[in-house]
């Protein structure tokens, strides 16, 4: 059976064994049209959950901090105007109507340890009016290494350091504007991580949190999210925080490309023809052209629900929407999972995905996109389809390049990395300067994404990459390589069922994103 999927910037249709199951995301839930978003935002702040209305939370003398996520989400990027532009413009009008002065309002992009957003990226997200009124004096990227502007709030009951941008503590009200695409994001993670430092992020973004518990992609049952919540509770004891979460649907593709993420039984005759013809047409298209075509696609996401108020009550509503939009039932667990990874990562916006992200995005993200139990059996195999180009963005991925050359040549074990390399990367003056002034991810960042794969590495018997011409990158990454999907699945069969006929394969068609719920 044919499996239409990505491999970097290519779209391919390899053969799967008969009896394989191919999983697709549910159709997008009907969202709030862009023209109606401002009114939905206004209603959310007029009637917030478990908090007084916005007008009762501020006065003419109030200092307000508006924080918002960076362009890691939603991804791929959405059409304009971005939901954050619409929300912040509406929110500013409401604050002005309450008498709050513009000079008492600060806008802060909560990049955490991600790379800072460039001016044109901020402009695309928040729009020209906000840029004109606030940038650069009162609109900036958070800087986790600006020690003069970091507040140290002590520790949690578990001894975790609590550090946050000082403006969170000094203002009268923090409003965090968040568009939530997967259950990983939003909730207590927003302020505690988005405006946190290496010292406060390292305790929960570490392999101990994921070694025995895979739930990094959702707060329920997650050691990592429990640590984040402990830090958030300390911050909440010192600051007044109101969040606004827009729970997004999964309309990754505009209507004319929606067939890329649909099964045949949801496609019309023209869409079925396109599915058959695209792999051949992509094969004869030069790589730079394929890249340009796929990068031009903008998501058609709409918010399904918009709520404002206290973190717990708002995020509970968001998670309910995420479950309805993303849950796909699987009849069983499988011996092998096949996934075609596009040249797409939340940590490679405006860049090609690098080899470290190929492994971490599949084993940290996609493998963990499940409810209750993994889609793959204990001792199963994951097959990744991607060319794994050994390229690193010269600005954004400076730390990743060093991680690939200096750390992975010594070990692929997350615990050994933490013991032998993490501190030197996180404290390195050159990497700190690249983070602060040159739009690079923090020196700790490649460790965080590798840590998220800790459970998968111990749970699986093998990870096999198909796509590169040889095994060079696979050996560096500590995984296996095969020249074709057929050979990869043959190896997986031997590892899981000893070559027997009971071998079952699941293949994922992502994007759009979804979480699997296995019955057995």
Plain-language structure description:
The chain has 520 residues and is of the alpha/beta class. It has two domains: 5-28 and 260-296 and 331-518, no CATH class; 34-248, LarA, N-terminal domain (Rossmann fold), CATH 3.40.50.11440. Helix content is 37%, strand content 19%. It contains 22 helices and 19 strands. A six-stranded parallel beta sheet has the order 3-18-13-15-16-17, with helices on both faces. It has a six-stranded mixed beta sheet with strand order 6-5-4-9-10-11, sandwiched between helices. A three-stranded parallel beta sheet has the order 12-19-14. The longest helix is centred in the middle third of the chain and has 16 residues, at 311-326. The chain starts with a strand and ends with a strand.
Count of individual helical segments: 22
Distance between the termini: 25 Å
- Beta percentage is 15-25%
Q: How would you state the average pLDDT, rounded?
A: 96
The assigned structural class equals: alpha/beta
Number of discrete domains: 2
